[in-house]
Amino acid sequence: MSQNVRILASGQGWRAMDIICTSGAGDRPFEERHGDVCIAAVSQGTFRYRTRQGTAMLTPGGLLLGNAGACFECGHEHGRGDRCLSFHFDPAFFEGVLAGVPGARSIDFTEARLPPLATLAPLLADAEAARDEGDRAALEEAGVRFAGAVATLLCPQGARKAPPGRRDQKRVAEAIRLIEDEAERPIALSELAAATATSPYHFLRIFRDVAGMTPHQYVLRTRLHRAAVRLAQTADPVSAIAYDAGFNDLSTFNRRFRAVMGATPTAWRARRQSGPPAG
């Protein structure tokens, strides 16, 4: 089996990897072993995955689920190659995610995969964009979101999460103040969680419940808002505004600005600085 494995980002208890496999029908599968808890999102290609939970066909949009220490095989008898965005978690880290999911009981997956689900599509798109842009903070958040989503989908039906209480609302308010003060620098999910004395998954959940978006989305919106104001009020170069706001890549800034503001930075500036139309 021929693989190109690239580590995209890592932190305490987690890793994100881009795995490209070029094996085909003529290549015999061989036994491998998951060193930790694995959730791999399939971006391209199809392959057969066999592990102790069963055998499944993985297709784009689906999630491969691997238990720590479990042996597995992947086969490509139906086509050549695949690409996966693979998240790996230490068992203790994943157990911390489970602690925040109502009804979740076991760290071991009972299924070999999750099929392409509509509820997972936006998360997969966000994760692939983070991979392509090299956005470490977004990859960390995507990994925790995937872990929470899988735990939620596999836990017994009927379990309900409690709404955020005053203490959690206070934690989110503290995190928002930190973001507002330092939005231009990289801010990791783990840093925000540690500052509020919560686990990354619990913090992610309560932040989304209170603020209506994830922490990384809030950071991006804050940066874009400040850039939009500066574009309207100054003649500073677009590149300088982008870098000062915290974007390391001008093309990423332009793309995200247009998606949120509905216009390119240059067009936005032209509209705002031209003044109101004559009456």
What's this model, at a glance?
The protein is α+β, with helices and mostly antiparallel strands and 279 residues long. The chain is built from 10 helices and 10 strands.
* Mean pLDDT over the residues: 87
Distance between the termini: 70 Å
Q: Kindly provide the radius of gyration, computed on alpha-carbon positions and rounded to a whole number of angstroms.
A: 21 Å
Content of β-strand = 15-25%
Multimeric state: single chain
Choose one word for the global shape.
globular
User: What would you call the structural class?
Assistant: alpha+beta
- How are strands sequenced across the largest beta sheet? 1-2-9-4-7-10
The run of helices and strands is EEEEEEEEEHEHHHHHHHHH
| Helix fraction by DSSP (H/I, runs of at least 4) | 40-55%
Low-confidence stretches: none
Largest sheet: 6 strands, antiparallel
Q: Could you give the count of β-strands? A: 10
Q: How many individual helices?
A: 10
Could you characterize what this model shows?
By secondary structure, this protein is α+β, with helices and mostly antiparallel strands. Helix content is 44%, strand content 20%. The protein has ten helices and ten strands. The strands form two sheets. Strands 1-2-9-4-7-10 form a six-stranded antiparallel beta sheet. Strands 3-8-5-6 form a four-stranded antiparallel beta sheet, with no helix packed on it. A hairpin with a 2-residue loop joins strand 1 (3-11) and strand 2. The mean pLDDT is 87.
What descriptive keywords fit this protein?
279 residues, alpha+beta, 6-stranded antiparallel β-sheet, 10 helices, globular
